[in-house]
Amino acid sequence: MALNDILQGWIQRFLFDHDAREVFIMSGTESKTQQLLQRKNQAVARGIANSTNVFVEKASGAVITDVEGKEFLDFYAGVGVLNVGHCPEPVVKAVQQQADKLLHSFFAIAMYEPYVALAEKLNAIAPGSAVKKTMFANSGAEAVENAVKIARHATKKTGIISFECAFHGRTFMTMSLTSKVKPYKYGFGPFAPDVYKVPSAYCYRCHYRSSYPGCGLHCLENFERFFAAEIDAEHIAAMIIEPVQGEGGFLVPPPEFLPGLKSICQSKGILLIADEVQTGFGRTGKMFAIENWGVEPDLMTTAKSIAAGVPLSAVTGKAEYMDAPDAGNIGGTYGGNPLACVAGLETIKFIEDNHLCSRAAEIGQKTMTRLKALQERCPAIGDVRGLGAMIGIELVKDRETKEPAKELTGKVVKYCLEQGVMLISAGIFSNVIRLLIPLVVTDEQLDRGLTVLEQSILRAAAEE
Ligand SMILES: Cc1ncc(COP(=O)(O)O)c(C=O)c1O
Questions:
Q1: Where on the phi/psi map is residue 217: left (φ > 0), alpha (ψ -120 to 50), or beta?
Q2: Which atom of ligand 1 is nearest to the CA of 242?
Q3: Mean pLDDT across the chain, nearest whole number?
Q4: Which CATH superfamily is domain 51-84+356-463 in?
């Protein structure tokens, strides 16, 4: 690159990129972040977008340190992956010890104990009393793909029902089950056939313009009409739902909804798949979110916080369904890799030993109390909702019209980052601040982070 080009780019960034300017002023030379950004832009595909310019050097508990040495409070937990915080010691040690012994053998060819031990553990802690079995994969999407395959084999039916506002992944089947067009589906069709969408229990923006509890739960009642007008229930293999919809905006359904779905499924011979990829492992105050409603799913998908950041996912379900596929029908090269399985075992032990389910409830209560109080004096906050430590703040331009405030939400995220708190947004209109605080956060960190969040919301709202 000619010297002139380098200088031009440098001046450009100095004039227009606030972060670059700050880092330059601090260091007096092009920062490590700037150098990495430049390399990233040249080497990494544009579709792999970044919501911040932060390059992480290391992280511990609820604190991320970037390559400039600046610390951030992590209020997004690697998007729900780090319920146990960054680099918990027992997990790191177990991975290191396993790395010395065995990295890979392919479980379908030569087996190893951690795979079996983690399957036993998941079978034991999965909701409900039915005998369970487990299989492992690598990502949340892959777990959902496998759950659909298992449900189809078990029922000998093919139709799958999913819900508006759902997010189940980025592969073709999971994208088809997903219900947010941009950026997840736009330009990627055609999608998998035999997938049917129904309205979800998004009470703040009810599809039927009703309000709970006087609504009579149209979202459940609708199924009778749906099975008459859209598709015969006898054709449907499974219904898949996130007990609390995550990417769709942290939507907590009313008490009757999930038990109601379960009884519809039971009466029609449809399997209920709980997608616990984001809600699992203590996040909502229970090990799995669906336990908050006392519902036993037929199949359950898990990933994210299962192994503290080591790639792993699982399908756990009633043995009769899990055993439906024939030998070799399911699996994959890396699924249930030894490193991931020991990480999973130690992660679950860490959650249990440190009582992180009750800590999630505590974090949730404290956070809810503060945010509800803020809502009283800040009209931009349309709704605050959540379960345990999975909390969403829906921002609106007007409380009456509920017009989504996407730009305002972006500003809040930006102001938080500037003050050292990292968090992200969600929602089909991208107007929900989502809080996924690591469950190992200290009280001081929680208070500090919430103060930054409150100030950022007030500042952004005042500028509107
Ligand atoms: C509920 C749910 N299901 C599936 C997925 C897909 O997981 P992955 O990104 O690991 O494929 C996600 C990811 O955010 C999720 O939240």
A1: left
A2: 1
A3: 94
A4: Aspartate Aminotransferase, domain 1 (3.90.1150.10)
Residues having CB within 6 Å of any atom of ligand 1: 139-141, 144, 167-169, 242, 246-247, 275, 277-278, 303
Index of the ligand 1 atom closest to the CA of residue 245: 1
Q: 79 CA to middle of ligand 1, Å? A: 9
Residue 58 CA, chain-centre distance (Å), reads 22
Ligand 1 atom with the smallest distance to the CA of 278 is 16
Take atom 16 of ligand 1 and give the residue whose Cα is closest: 278
CATH of 89-353, one of 3.40.50.720, 3.40.640.10, 3.10.20.90, 1.10.10.400: 3.40.640.10
Residue 14 has pLDDT above 50, yes or no: no
- Residue whose CA lies nearest to ligand 1 atom number 3: 168
Rg of the chain on CA atoms, in Å: 23
Q: Which residue has the higher pLDDT, 7 or 210?
A: 210
Q: Where in the chain is the domain with CATH 3.40.640.10?
A: 89-353
